[in-house]
Automatic annotation (TrEMBL):
It comes from Iris pallida (Sweet iris). Coiled coil: none annotated. It comes from the Eukaryota. One of its GO terms (molecular function) is ribosome binding. Gene3D superfamilies: 6.10.250.2860, P-loop containing nucleotide triphosphate hydrolases. This is Hflx-type G domain-containing protein. GO terms for cellular component: cytoplasm. NCBIfam families: GTP_HflX, small_GTP. Residues 69-234 form the Hflx-type G domain.
Length: 293
């Protein structure tokens, strides 16, 4: 709409001529009416975008109280991010064969067979060059990305320009300053390639996970790879969890690896490898360890 606004000129001159210049209501020319309508719509959409941002921020804050690691799906538009999220979580996220099907990021919980879990966030797809006017629309998604524990780069490996798309996504990620967040590359749509067997072998050789969000191929391996990556960035902590906060023990068991527990009179001493956000959250309880010994 912002693109349209300055280009409206002259669209109505033929009408004005036909009506002897009297199509204008309230002393306004049609083009001014159009501009006003466009501006109003732009205003409404901007307000909606702002509320999406606020909403996401509240979500993120709430998540901090249950600090399960957040994994964000990033990738070129149409790579199959939403389809993958739906597949893994049985969620009902809009997946469509068109550009920018997803504008509002969506987060769902993925429960893995071994009792662990992580949160998976869908984001808007990237393109070759992000028009500056669109950046505002992307902000909610971009903020989401910068606060995640792991980025999963979803690639449509059946696309003839897959490599260019990978490069474009890497470039955007660089611009976003998220190089410090660990990344996992996933080749999607392997079912759609000419020679799925060859692609699978190549993926294995490159240490890339190969999946098909449509037929479900490789999803278990995907979850394993996500967990292995998350584990890489986890830290060993010792904390004293008082009994009135015992629900935290559950959280630690779910998102971390418990190495040992000792029950004391007023709480539990626990030693575990946990995701960084959880380690931070546990900081006050980590200081209690010495006192409890
Ligand atoms: N054959 C095949 N098609 C797939 C696969 N995964 C996704 N698709 C199709 O690819 C199209 C795009 O999928 P989406 O999940 O909407 O893609 P997206 O990455 O979320 O796209 P944006 O939201 O625009 O960034 C849809 O038509 C899907 O059905 C797959 O593994 N195999
Ligand atoms: Mg999508």
């Amino acid at each position: 709409m912002e693109y349209q606004l300055p280009r409206l000129t002259k669209m109505w001159t033929h009408l004005e001529r036909q009506a002897g210049g009297r199509v204008k209501g309230m002393g306004e020319k049609q083009i001014e009416v159009d501009k006003r309508i466009l501006r109003t719509q732009i205003g409404v959409l901007k307000k909606e975008l702002e509320s999406v941002r606020k909403h996401r921020k509240q979500y993120r804050n709430r998540r901090l109280s249950v600090p399960v690691p957040v994994v964000s799906l990033v990738g070129y538009t149409n790579a199959g991010k939403s389809t993958l999220l739906n597949r893994l979580t049985g969620a009902d996220v809009l997946a469509e064969d068109r550009l920018f099907a997803t504008l509002d990021p969506t987060t769902r919980r993925v429960a893995v067979n071994n009792g662990k879990e992580f949160l998976l966030t869908d984001t808007v797809g990237f393109i070759q060059k992000l028009p500056t006017m669109l950046v505002a629309a992307f902000r909610a998604t971009l903020e989401e990305i910068s606060e995640s524990s792991l980025l999963v780069h979803v690639v449509d490996i059946s696309h003839p320009l897959a490599q260019q798309q990978i490069d474009a996504v890497d470039k955007v990620l660089e611009e976003l300053d998220v190089a410090s967040i660990p990344k996992l590359v996933v080749w999607n749509k392997v079912d759609k390639t000419d020679d799925p067997r060859r692609v699978k072998l190549e993926a294995e050789r490159k240490g890339v996970v190969c999946v098909s969000a449509i037929d479900g191929y490789g999803l278990e391996q995907f979850c394993d790879a996500v967990q292995a990556k998350l584990r890489d960035s986890m830290v060993l902590v010792e904390a004293f969890i008082p009994y009135d906060k015992s629900e935290l023990l559950n959280t630690i068991h779910q998102s971390g690896i418990v190495e040992g527990t000792e029950y004391r009179e007023n709480g539990t001493l626990i030693r575990a490898v946990v995701p960084l956000p959880l380690a931070r959250f546990l900081a006050p309880m980590r200081q209690q360890v010495a006192a409890a010994l």
